[in-house]
Inverse folding.
């Protein structure tokens, strides 16, 4: 098999991925092996690959590929989420562009368009993940709206309803006026904004006086049903029991007393609008106030807005404020900074809205999930710091609003048979619902056509919280072979931003339906940020095109760039230069492989230097292998990659290959060659999870392989005992070789010119690597001495002194002149640094890091002066 002169990722990656797919290496089915299971955090079906996906899925692929090499039955289940709000918004926009209004077509017609959209655009992201090298079991690809997945969701809803945990309630909810649906508390993001605070006078009935209130939302004045004062506020004792007139609409409302009112905020008088504020609703309930909703579902004013009807709430705010000013009752405005809730999906400002919704009672459901993470440690969070965040949310959990006013999603299986609020039954099918309705009403004449199914759908998270079970059909068939084999799964890799949305809820569902954890470990990755620490986002224009990065640097290069940027659990400062570093690493390995394959192999005796070199690297490799156990267990994949990088680039390419390389034109012995090939193969195995394409390509070029001998299904290198002292001895020897090379470079002595080396062995280092030092330093004579060698250049490694006689090799006078000039310059530099360090003003006022830098300059200059003086002494 011919070996190309250069590594071209664009020619390799599709070929190798097709090869893996052809031989079904990614597929898993239950057998006698230990399972290792990961379920993908399902991306939105409408999504495309971004940097967060790249990081998350690279980490998962590293873990799954290593598990395969460790001999485990590795199963990585891919899939997508139907993303109710996001997908419906896209379909609505598409229909609008075609001149179709969602409200003008039936639910069935809309869903047909939604499925068309899903079939056309859905799953694009999964195809993109293949470009990254993700080794998912594509035969197992799931979609949260698949028939079997939807059946599982409905089954769980009915079960929880029958247990009394799901109920329907008229409550204040978060309303997204753009998507026109309710949202759970976790889907609301709070942003700090500066708005106007309007001070408005309300006329006191039967008097000439006014009460002044402060509000950021003058348009909701038209929904006021009371003004509230604190009973302890002495300023307003005279107002007790009186009434005021609401401006514009002239509604007569009472002045009430409630200790909720903050005496210090605004004027101390609070307008109460029960339909538009959670706290106002609670006050209204305590005082039996009327509820007047002034907004339509889309955020525009309704008929209670009078002549402002039809205006968007933002326009109405300005117009109402202007009207109040014209009436002479707008006292003043001032700026106020406050937190404003916005929709996580559409970014629209959330409206508190009273609505009939479905809720899941969470109080008892959370208890096993709390215990699993915070007491027994059955589920471990990495990094551990997230346990406090988890505890806070779980201990303060509110009932989950699970209904959404959408078409796209699992339709709630509640069937109404009458007009009353409680005239409904809950069942998995319409036929089952009919029987329940007949039993409940005693009316055997009821027909399916008499039933009306609830029009709402379930929150998307209500399907994805079952994901680790439903992908193995564990809800519909709770004792099937696959759920019993693959569940609980092993590792979950996801972002901390969905710790509540998804992770916590999956743990809750796992204990409720399998009485077992859904996964053992949760690795919460950091967010991907740019070099300015800004979160990468399309809106900022700082997020590179994922596929273009792969095109430019190769998938392996991008994977290396992402992981080198990513310290465990911390935000990732992405730097494209690291992808270039990954590409260069691939080239380095390819060139090293070509060098090895270019050697002529002969049946000759193995040199001593090659024998000890092989022994050293094998010990170094084993040392790294043991360290990997800890790094992988802590999800410190960036560190594991860096150790692999150093082992291959420095120890293998830069040292070992130089140590065993035969002289120009000479062959290498068989024993050394076969050992180097075995070492290369082991290097490829530990690098494979990080750089799968390159490693498989090199592996397949080393020798002809059968399909069952592919790298990705080979075996992780075995741990063996190793010689720690040998590793230390080489580290010492490498410093000696570096010292020799430095002197050759300084003195312009060509490598082909052999030199002598004399050693004062104060460290009593064994001569294990002397043959290697002779070879790599081109030393014709190495001798141990007890006294300094006169007229020689010298360097030190710890307390050992090394002497290289230079007589005849250099112009001694010129060298003395050069060193003397360097000494004068360095001593002058030292004086300037020490002068600065003796200045108390500088020491007291300069930043700590600046002072530390100056002290390092001083130390470096002192060391350099000592070295120059030693060299001068050896020449005199």
């Amino acid at each position: 098999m011919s070996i190309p002169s250069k590594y071209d990722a664009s020619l390799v990656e599709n070929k190798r991925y097709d090869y893996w797919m052809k031989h079904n290496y990614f597929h898993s089915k239950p057998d006698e092996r230990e399972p290792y299971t990961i379920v993908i955090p399902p991306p939105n079906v409408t999504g495309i690959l971004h940097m967060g996906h790249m990081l998350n899925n690279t980490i998962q692929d590293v873990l799954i590929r290593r598990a395969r090499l460790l001999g485990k039955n590795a199963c990585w289940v891919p899939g997508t989420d139907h993303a109710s709000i996001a997908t419906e918004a896209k379909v609505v926009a598409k229909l609008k562009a075609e001149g179709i209004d969602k409200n003008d077509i039936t639910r069935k017609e809309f869903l047909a368009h939604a499925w068309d959209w899903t079939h056309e655009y859905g799953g694009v992201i999964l195809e993109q993940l293949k470009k990254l090298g993700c080794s998912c079991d594509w035969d197992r690809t799931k979609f949260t709206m698949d028939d079997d997945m939807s059946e599982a969701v409905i089954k769980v809803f009915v079960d929880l309803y029958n247990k009394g945990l799901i109920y329907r309630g008229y409550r204040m909810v978060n309303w997204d006026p753009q998507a026109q649906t309710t949202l759970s508390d976790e889907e609301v993001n709070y942003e700090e904004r500066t708005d106007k605070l309007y001070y408005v006078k309300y006329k006191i009935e039967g008097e000439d006086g006014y009460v002044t209130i402060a509000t950021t939302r003058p348009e909701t004045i038209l929904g006021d049903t009371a003004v509230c004062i604190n009973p302890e506020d002495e300023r307003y004792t005279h107002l007790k029991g009186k009434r005021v007139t609401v401006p514009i609409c002239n509604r007569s409302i009472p002045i009430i007393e409630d200790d909720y009112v903050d005496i210090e905020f605004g004027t101390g008088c609070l307008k109460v609008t029960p339909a538009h504020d959670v706290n106002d609703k609670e006050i209204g309930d305590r005082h039996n106030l009327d509820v007047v909703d002034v907004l339509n579902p889309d955020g525009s004013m309704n008929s209670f807005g009078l002549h402002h009807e039809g205006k968007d709430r933002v326009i109405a705010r300005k117009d109402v404020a202007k009207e109040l000013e014209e009436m002479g009752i707008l006292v003043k405005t001032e700026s106020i900074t406050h937190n404003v809730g916005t929709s996580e999906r559409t970014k629209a400002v959330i409206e508190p809205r009273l609505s009939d919704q479905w809720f899941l009672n969470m109080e008892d459901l959370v208890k096993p999930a709390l215990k699993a993470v915070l007491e027994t440690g059955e589920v471990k969070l990495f990094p551990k710091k997230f346990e406090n965040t988890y505890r806070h949310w779980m201990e303060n959990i509110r009932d989950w609003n699970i209904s959404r006013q959408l078409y796209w999603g699992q339709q709630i299986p509640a069937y109404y048979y009458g007009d009353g609020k409680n005239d409904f039954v809950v069942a998995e099918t319409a036929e089952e619902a009919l029987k329940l309705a007949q039993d409940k009403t005693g009316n055997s004449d009821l027909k399916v056509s008499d039933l009306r199914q609830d029009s709402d759908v379930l929150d998307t998270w209500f399907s994805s919280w079952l994901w680790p079970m439903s992908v193995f059909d564990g809800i519909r068939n709770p004792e099937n072979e696959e759920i019993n084999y693959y569940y609980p799964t092993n590792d979950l890799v996801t972002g901390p931003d969905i710790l509540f949305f998804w992770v916590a809820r999956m743990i809750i569902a796992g204990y409720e339906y399998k009485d077992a954890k859904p996964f053992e470990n949760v690795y919460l990755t950091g967010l991907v940020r740019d070099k300015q620490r800004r979160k990468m986002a399309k809106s900022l224009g700082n997020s590179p095109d994922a596929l273009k990065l792969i095109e430019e640097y190769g998938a392996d290069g991008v994977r290396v760039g992402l992981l080198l940027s990513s310290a465990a659990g911390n935000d990732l400062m992405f730097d494209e230069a690291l992808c270039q570093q990954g590409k260069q690493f691939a080239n380095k390995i390819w060139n090293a492989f070509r060098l090895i394959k270019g050697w002529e192999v002969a049946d000759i005796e193995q040199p001593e230097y090659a024998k000890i070199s092989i022994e050293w690297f094998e010990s170094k490799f084993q040392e790294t292998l043991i360290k990997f156990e800890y790094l992988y267990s802590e999800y410190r994949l960036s560190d594991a990659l860096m150790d692999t990088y150093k082992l291959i680039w420095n120890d293998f390419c830069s040292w070992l290959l130089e140590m065993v390389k035969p002289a120009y034109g000479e062959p290498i012995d068989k024993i050394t060659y076969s050992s180097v090939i075995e070492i290369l193969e082991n290097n490829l195995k530990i690098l494979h999870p990080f750089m799968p394409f390159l490693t498989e390509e090199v592996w397949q070029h080393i020798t002809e392989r059968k399909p069952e001998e592919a790298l990705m299904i080979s075996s992780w290198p075995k741990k063996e005992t190793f010689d720690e002292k040998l590793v230390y001895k080489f580290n010492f020897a490498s410093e000696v070789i570096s010292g020799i090379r430095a002197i050759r470079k300084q003195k312009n002595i060509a490598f082909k010119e052999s030199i002598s080396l004399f050693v004062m062995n104060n460290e009593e280092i064994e001569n294990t690597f002397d043959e290697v030092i002779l070879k790599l330093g081109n030393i014709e004579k190495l001798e141990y001495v007890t006294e300094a060698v006169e007229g020689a250049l010298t360097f030190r490694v710890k307390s050992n002194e090394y002497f290289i006689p230079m007589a005849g090799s250099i112009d001694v006078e010129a060298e003395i002149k050069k060193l003397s000039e360097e000494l004068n310059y360095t001593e002058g530099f030292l004086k300037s640094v020490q002068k600065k360090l003796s200045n108390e003003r500088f020491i007291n006022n300069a930043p700590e890091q600046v002072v530390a830098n100056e002290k390092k300059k001083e130390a470096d200059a002192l060391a350099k002066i000592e070295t120059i003086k030693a060299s001068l002494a050896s020449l005199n």
User: Anything to note?
Assistant: DSSP finds 26 helices and 31 strands in the chain. The mean pLDDT is 92. The CA atoms of residues 563 and 638 lie 5 Å apart.
